[in-house]
Amino acid sequence: MQLADHEYKDCMLDLETMGTTPGSAVVAIGAVMFDRETASIGDRFYVNLDLEQVMAAGFTATGGTLEFWLKQPDEARLQILKDPAALVDGVMSFAEFVTRGELGVNKDMRVWGNGAAFDNVLLRCVYERLGMLTPWNFWNDRCFRTIKNEEPRAKDLLPEFVGTPHNALDDAVHQAKWAINLYHGQRMEHVEYVGHDEEESE
After folding, report:
1. pLDDT (tens digit per residue) in 140-166
2. What's the predicted TM-score (pTM) here?
3. 29, 64, 167, 201: least buried by Cβ within 10 Å?
4. What superfamily in CATH does domain 10-194 come from?
């Protein structure tokens, strides 16, 4: 199946943060385009944000989340510090990813987060605090955790994890694969990968 020119309308988002509430410091953004019907995964996005700039902008960290990160393997902790982008540049690059380079708002894009009050809400707070447009409409927020928890067979449909846990892109791809499996009611053997990676660095 050739899907190189496929127009995706679903984007799985995953953040790495220093807290769990709006206003928390976001240190990494990972995302991937996907299509549940065709079982395909498209373009990928990843950016680390400069933690010093994020904190200087008034975003916060909690002791519990810092403790969580200190307990993670070196690979996961070091990845969020690698090649950070300036705060505004990083979130602008994600907006370009969602809108296919046109900025503004992609009115057709559904953005999925792992929790109704987490990824989408925290990232929207970043855009609002910086005085920037959120690149998707709030009514297109989708919650992966909801569809996962409502499916009794969710654990049976869990795909193999590839990459590093708590790497925002690897987590996003894993969640997109799982969402595809949940949609089809089976573990898909041949999820297609089309498109290319997009990374932003300073």
Report:
1. 999 999 999 999 999 999 999 999 999
2. 0.92
3. 64
4. Ribonuclease H-like superfamily/Ribonuclease H (3.30.420.10)
| Pairing label, strands 141-143, 110-113 | parallel
Buried b (16+ CB within 10 A) or exposed e, 94-103: bbbbbbeeee
The length of the chain in residues reads 202
Q: Quick one: DSSP state of residue 65? A: H
Domains of the chain, by residue range, sit at 10-194
* Residues of the chain by 3-state class (helix, strand, coil), percent to 5: 35, 25, 40
Q: Which residue, 55, 50, 53, is CA-closest to 82?
A: 50
Q: Residue 17 in 3-state DSSP?
A: strand
Render pLDDT for 32-59 as a digit per residue (tens, 0 to 9). 999 999 899 999 999 999 999 999 999 9
- Residues 23 and 117: their CA atoms lie apart, in Å, by 12
